[in-house]
């Protein structure tokens, strides 16, 4: 673990040192890269994921111009404590982490469960987030959201039978292009050779799944509080968080942009990273124009 502030000029996620900060009784593991100063982009990760699960092609594209922070929430990877059993409690921990780093305004890039945590965070503190990216996710109480656990366990079993990474089944279609994209994605995650994160513990994974199910069965939040520029993206065949929920988010979040990638699943942004990464980077670029024509820095 590194706590030095001197290596902020890291530009490749595979080289970003793992740091730690303690707040609220939790020691959070995190990594940062890209130019510091200004508002950081904080990445909110998916179910069962650690620091090592972010696609470097997407992180690096955004970090070319922005200060990027990835982190393990409580009980995940190298962070201490026990995984919370609600999405809202995960949002509380994320807020604790962001505040501990001294940030009062952030941009958010989120994927899957991370998008649920990001929504809960904005509902709690609408002024914290300036620009928002929601990918492979859906709203609280969204149709069939509570079936994530069943799909996940089924695909983990399918993966075990073929000795594959479960993400190949969960994130990608099982056609020729999907299988190729899955293998390429898993290979990209292996680019970081040293200082890798601790794996997700099975109990923490089960707790996260239960939290997603609870979120799926909960009363919908009032998403009219999300007034910041928002980019929503997914594949057209998401089996984990049904693609229709991205359209639901788009309807509920006024002025949001929606991208649905054809012939792809939950990991649509990963399969189409060569198209999506520049779009996300432009959306999060310093001085990007908002939907109402005003600029941001």
UniProtKB/TrEMBL annotation:
Domain AB hydrolase-1, first and last residues per copy: 41-272
InterPro entries found in the cross-reference section: AB_hydrolase, AB_hydrolase_1, AB_hydrolase_fold
Gene Ontology MF annotations: hydrolase activity
Protein name as annotated: Alpha/beta hydrolase
Record-linked Gene3D superfamilies: alpha/beta hydrolase
Signal sequence annotation: none
Organism: Nocardioides cavernae
UniProt keyword list: Hydrolase
């Amino acid at each position: 673990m590194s706590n030095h502030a001197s290596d902020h000029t890291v530009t490749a996620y595979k080289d970003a040192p793992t740091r730690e900060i303690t707040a609220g009784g939790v020691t959070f593991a995190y990594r940062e890269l890209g130019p510091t100063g200004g508002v950081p982009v904080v990445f909110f990760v998916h179910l069962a994921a650690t620091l090592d699960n972010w696609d470097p092609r997407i992180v690096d594209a955004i970090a070319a111009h922005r200060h990027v922070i990835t982190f393990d929430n409580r009980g995940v990877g190298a962070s201490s404590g026990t995984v919370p059993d609600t999405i809202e409690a995960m949002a509380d921990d994320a807020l604790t982490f962001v505040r501990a780093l001294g940030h009062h305004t952030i941009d958010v890039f989120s994927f899957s469960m991370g998008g649920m945590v990001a929504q809960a965070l904005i509902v709690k503190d609408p002024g914290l987030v300036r620009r928002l990216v929601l990918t492979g996710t859906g709203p609280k109480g969204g149709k069939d959201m509570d079936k994530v656990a069943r799909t996940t366990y089924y695909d983990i079993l399918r993966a075990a039978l073929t000795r594959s990474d479960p993400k190949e089944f969960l994130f990608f279609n099982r056609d020729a292009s999907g299988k190729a994209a899955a293998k390429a994605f898993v290979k990209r995650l292996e680019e970081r050779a040293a200082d890798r994160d601790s794996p997700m513990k099975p109990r923490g994974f089960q707790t996260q799944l239960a939290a997603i199910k609870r979120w799926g069965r909960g009363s919908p939040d009032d998403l009219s509080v999300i007034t910041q520029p928002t980019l929503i993206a997914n594949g057209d065949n998401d089996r984990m968080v049904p693609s229709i929920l991205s359209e639901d988010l788009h309807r509920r979040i006024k002025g949001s942009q929606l991208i649905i990638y054809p012939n792809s699943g939950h990991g649509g942004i990963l399969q189409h990273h060569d198209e999506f990464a520049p779009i996300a980077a432009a959306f999060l670029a310093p001085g990007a124009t908002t939907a109402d024509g005003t600029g941001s820095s």
